[in-house]
Structure formats: C-alpha cells, structure tokens
C-alpha cells in the first residue's frame, strides 16, 4: 500500500482564521479630543479681544470717571476644507464567502472612516491656509500656522529648562499649555527628565516604568503628553515640539463626516466618506511651536 502524503492531498481544507488584523497606525488624538462647534459658511469667522493694560487704579472721592483706551475686537478667519475618502468594491467581491467580514463594502467603509480621521488630523496639525478656486481646493490653517510663539532651535538638544521656558512664554501671554504633542524621540526625552520628580512603585510590582504621561511645572499644571506622528514627518528638519492650550482650539463642522453611496455606473458599489470643516483658534498665543530640536 502506498503511503499517503499531505503534500499533494487535494482533500485538505484550507486553514484560514476568521480574523483580520490591520497593522497600519491610527492617529487622530486631536480630532477626538478637541471641542467642536458649527460653521455656517465656507469662510468661518470669529472675534477675539483684549483687556486694557493693568495698572494702579485708585480714585479720589466724587471725581468723574476716566476712560482707558479700548481695543476693537479682532476678526479671525479660516476656510472650511472638504475631506473625502472614496471606496469601491465589485459586486462579485461582495457576493463571495469571505473570512473576517460578512460584507467587503462595509469593511472598506470602516477603513475609509479611519482614513478620513487621519487626513483630518494631518490638516489640523499642519494645514496651510488656501482660499480655493474652481481649480484649487480650499484648505484650513492648522495649529502650527496659527501660533505666534514659533522658534527654531537649529539642532539644539531639548532640555527640561528649555521646555519650562516655552511653557512660561505661553503663561506670560495669559494662558497655560495643557497638552504637548511631539514625535516619539522627544516623548522619550521628556520622560527622561528627572528634576523634582518622584515615582512611587508597589514593591510587588516588578514592572520597570520609565514613561511620563503628565508633566507639571511652575508655568503649566497637569500638561498631558502625547506622542504624535504628524508633528514631525519625513522631510522635516530634526524634531518639532508643539504645546497648546486645547481649550483655545475647536473643530467647526460645516458638514460632519457622513457615508454616502454614489451612483452605480458599473458592476460595483461605490461610496465615499465626505465632510467639510475648519479649525477655530481663540488665542494665537495659546501655545508654542518649536522647530528643529534634537
């Protein structure tokens, strides 16, 4: 009797797990974390104002009032940006018996929504203002381009003293940073700062903890630290550090992202995620952006 081998056994069933893993990164901390508001036009506008200069204020009894110099409210603007992510699945593909999902179109829709959030996150951080035309898309101004407190360190290594100086610069302008966004390299460097820090670890816990997720200084209390992929991207010189007061920024939606199926023109199902939104900045000194750190 001949030995039966598995190598050429056509009766073997395939071994395919009913599991699908997506290894791509997902980065939309700002999209999920910032407050939201509503836009009513493609040119979104809001007002900011300042108080009078502080000084001695003491009056003699019975005298007339005096009138300090007043500033007029300043109008700030940003343009609503249309973000779209399309998808298409053949009708044959939708009819197959597939592992991990019942409907390929539904699965691609979920992927497209994540991609939409990532593209919006990128625009919120790095967007450059463009008014748009019939042949050019409108673009929103992102956080980096809103901030006035911008410095370039030309390859200087980030120190704890420097970080506290940046935080103080924002405090001097009348607000406080409550969130830092930086690439992994700078996140690890900040986690290595030891000035005035104490870590309490249970003796039975054998884990080695070497990470800081909240930083506190004289100029800013309870600053959340986020590692972020879009603060520094390929092509940037060295590493950037972004610190903001998140209360000073909101995402204003003219059209919230929605899934819509497009007209059928062949033997496939087409759709897209589409939305229109912009970024509000209530205080242009409500954060800092430091370039080219090491």
What does this structure look like?
The structure is a single chain. By secondary structure, the protein is α/β, with parallel strands linked by helices. The chain has one domain (29-46, 75-199, 209-293). Helix content is 20%, strand content 29%. The chain has helices at 29-33, 91-95, 104-126, 143-146, 160-172, 184-191, and strands at residues 35-38, 43-48, 74-79, 81-90, 149-156, 179-182, 214-215, 223-227, 239-244, 249-261, 268-281, 287-293. The chain is extended. The mean pLDDT is 89.
What portion of residues is helical? 10-25%
Number of strands: 12
Classify the oligomer: single chain
Give me the side-by-side strand order of the main sheet.
5-12-9-6-8-7
**Count of discrete structural domains:** 1
Low-confidence stretches: none
Number of helical regions = 6
Proportion of beta-strand residues: 25-35%
Structural class of the secondary elements?
alpha/beta
Q: State the end-to-end CA separation.
A: 72 Å
Radius of gyration: 26 Å
- Write the H/E string, N to C: HEEEEHHHEHEHEEEEEE
Shape: extended
Largest sheet report: 6 strands, mixed
The overall pLDDT average reads 89
Write the layout of secondary structure elements.
Elements: H1 29-33, E1 35-38, E2 43-48, E3 74-79, E4 81-90, H2 91-95, H3 104-126, H4 143-146, E5 149-156, H5 160-172, E6 179-182, H6 184-191, E7 214-215, E8 223-227, E9 239-244, E10 249-261, E11 268-281, E12 287-293
């Amino acid at each position: 009797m001949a030995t039966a081998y598995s190598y050429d056994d056509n009766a073997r069933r395939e071994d395919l797990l009913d599991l699908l893993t997506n290894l791509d990164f997902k980065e939309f901390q700002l999209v999920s974390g910032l407050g939201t508001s509503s836009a009513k036009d493609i040119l979104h506008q809001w007002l900011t104002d300042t108080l009078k200069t502080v000084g001695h204020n003491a009056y003699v009894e019975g005298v007339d009032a005096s009138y300090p110099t007043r500033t007029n409210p300043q109008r700030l603007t940003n343009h609503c940006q249309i973000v779209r992510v399309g998808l298409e699945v053949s009708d044959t593909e939708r009819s197959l018996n597939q592992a991990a999902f019942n409907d390929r179109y539904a699965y691609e829709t979920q992927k497209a929504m994540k991609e939409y959030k990532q593209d919006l996150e990128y625009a919120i951080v790095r967007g450059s203002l463009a008014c748009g035309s019939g042949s050019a898309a409108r673009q929103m101004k992102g956080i980096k381009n809103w901030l006035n407190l911008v410095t370039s360190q030309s390859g200087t290594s980030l120190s704890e003293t420097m970080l506290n100086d940046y935080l103080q610069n924002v405090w001097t302008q009348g607000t406080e940073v409550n969130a830092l966004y930086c690439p992994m390299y700078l996140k690890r460097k900040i986690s290595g700062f030891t000035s005035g820090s104490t870590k309490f670890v249970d003796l039975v816990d054998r884990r080695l903890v070497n990470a800081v997720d909240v930083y506190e200084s004289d100029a800013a209390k309870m600053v959340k630290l986020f590692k972020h992929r879009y603060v520094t991207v390929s092509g940037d010189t060295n590493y950037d550090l972004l610190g903001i007061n998140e209360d000073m920024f909101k995402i204003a939606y003219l059209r919230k992202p929605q899934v819509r199926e497009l007209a059928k023109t062949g033997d496939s199902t087409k759709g897209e995620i589409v939305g229109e939104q912009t970024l509000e900045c209530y205080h242009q000194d409500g954060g800092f952006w430091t370039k080219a750190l090491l």
